[in-house]
Specification:
Layout lengths: L3 H11 L6 E6 L4 E10 L2 E4 L4 E2 L4 E4 L4
Antiparallel strand pairs: 1-2, 1-5, 2-3, 3-4
């Protein structure tokens, strides 16, 4: 699970003018990518409707 500090770093990265495309590695080793719609305390929501709770996420854009 990502720490609060790592979540803050992710939010900071997403606020930049750069693309919001992320690569996510889940605890079951599945890798997914997509554009972030929003990041809340409940997890990451992608623009295509997928949602990943932080408990399922092992790594986001290399942050583990």
């Amino acid at each position: 699970m990502l720490s609060e500090e790592q979540r803050a770093e992710l939010r900071k990265q997403m606020q930049r003018d750069e693309s919001k495309v992320v690569n996510i590695v889940l605890h079951d080793e599945q890798q997914v990518a997509g554009e972030v719609e929003k990041a809340t305390r409940d997890g990451i929501y992608l623009t295509d409707g997928r949602h990943y709770p932080y408990e399922q996420i092992r790594e986001i854009n290399g942050l583990s």
